[in-house]
Amino acid sequence: MKLKGAIIGCGFFAHNHMQAWNEIKNIEIVAVCDLDKKKAISFSKKFKIAHYYTDINKLLDLENLDFVDVVTTMETHLSIGKILSKRKVATSIQKPFAENLQDAKKIVSLYEKTKTPLMVHENFRWQTPLMTLKKLEKQYQLKKPQYSKISFRHANPVGYTNQAYLYDLEEYLILDVGIHLYDLSRFFLGEATSVYTINQNTNKKFKGETAFTSLVRHENGGVSIIDASISSIKTPDRFAQTLVNVEYENGSIDLDYDYNITVHKKGLKKLHKGNPRKLKWISKPWDQIQESIVNTHNHFISCLNMKRVHDTSGADNIKSLSLVFASYQSNKHRKEIQLNEK
Ligand code: NAD
Ligand code: 89Y
To answer: How confident is the prediction for the chain on average, in pLDDT?
Structure first.
């Protein structure tokens, strides 16, 4: 059965979402909506979408939708979530899920009340290099993860110039990118119990932090070091590659630059590649992020079809967001923050 959907928010990143929807079988994006009429019109023309709207209620009154894909910034999510949950429309919503934990919890409870599916578009764990790492863990029977180092460091302005709203945020890099990296630490080592974070501002164009280093404790006794920076000069530049090292009781895996993955076990060293698929609309340096949107959409749709809870449901994402806000507390008070303390 073909599912009908709409995109809400026709800004910078929505173009990637639409290209990715075009890769997925049995899906039709029948309408788009943006407060800015010009953007809604040019987006619908570019992608040959039948209808455009500037008001979500009107979109829902006039279209018969199976789902919506919300690609707006975080401060809009509570008001949009109120409308969509009340009308029981299955929703995929971009990160950051909300600008504080209270709003995120409110959105989750609204969707729970009307039994409406809600997934956060947390796409880093759906990047092919990261999915390959996870697959190799199983293939090589690596057990009991005890350490991870997850790093996103670059100095490429393309990582923020398309997203001008980032400059004025009091809280920038942890909310924008840290959220992905904390999610990855949970993906590889399981739930977290505490975090200690030190922030830096290395670029005065930004109000908020432009670099951070976090130490996370996990329930299984494991530890993660998570760091990001937009001022890390290297040749070639590393944007937008997340470099990961996971150590297990019986081996380790390194995901290095250029999607090179090395698996180590006693007496064994194997090289693998984790390149994203080459799709027509994908180009460096965004390739693995762009391709992950297809994988994330697929997860959203297949869970809807199977009536399964999404791996990155709203409720699940609150656990990653808790690390984000605990990190800001940690940096402010210069102390380790227990996640159940706040
Ligand atoms: P943007 O500002 O370019 O676009 C957002 C659009 O939403 C704007 O056109 C705005 O008019 C519209 N909008 C806001 N409120 C609306 C409402 N109530 N109804 C209809 N339209 C509304 O933002 P962007 O750069 O496209 O980013 C969108 C989100 O995507 C952000 O949260 C950002 O963090 C996220 N993002 C994620 C990734 C990723 O890899 N996951 C990468 C880039 C951006
Ligand atoms: O907004 C960020 C994200 O979510 O992924 C990359 C990004 O676009 C900028 O670093």
So the answer is: 97
Q: Is 145 in the pocket of ligand 1 (CB under 6 A)?
A: no
Choose the residue to mutate in 15, 33, 73, 82 for probing ligand 1, maximizing ligand atoms within 8 Å of C-beta.
Answer: 73
277 neighbors 295 (Cβ within 8 angstroms): no
Tell me the CA–centroid distance for residue 294 and ligand 2, in Å. Answer: 16
CB of 242 within 6 A of ligand 1: the answer is no
Cβ(123) to ligand 1 under 6 A?
Answer: yes
Q: Collect contacts of 142-145 with beta carbons under 8 A, ≥24 apart.
A: 142/246, 142/248, 142/250, 142/251, 142/252, 142/253, 142/263, 142/265, 143/248, 143/249, 143/250, 144/220, 144/248, 144/249, 144/250, 145/188, 145/189, 145/190, 145/220, 145/222, 145/246, 145/247, 145/248
Which residue matches tokens 């997925």?
24
pLDDT at 342 (0 to 100): 46
Query: Mutate which of 17, 171, 176, 203 to test ligand 2's pocket (most atoms within 8 Å of Cβ)?
Result: 176
Task: Find the radius of gyration of the CA atoms of the chain.
Answer: 20
Model pLDDT, residue 340: 80
- At 341 the pLDDT is 56
**Residue closest to 98 by CA, chosen among 328, 323, 340, 321:** 321
Q: How far is the CA of 198 from the centre of ligand 2 (A)?
A: 20
Of the listed ligands, the closest to the CA of 163 is 1
Q: Residue 44: phi, psi to the nearest 5?
A: -65, -35
Q: What's the pLDDT tens digit per position in 103-141?
A: 999 999 999 999 999 999 999 999 999 999 999 999 999
Mean pLDDT across 307-311: 98
Tens of pLDDT, residue by residue over 164-197, are 999 999 999 999 999 999 999 999 999 999 999 9
* Ligand lying nearest the CA atom of residue 124: 1
Task: Write out pLDDT tens, residues 78-106.
Answer: 999 999 999 999 999 999 999 999 999 99
**Residues contacting ligand 2 via CB (< 6 Å):** 159, 163, 176-177, 180, 240, 289
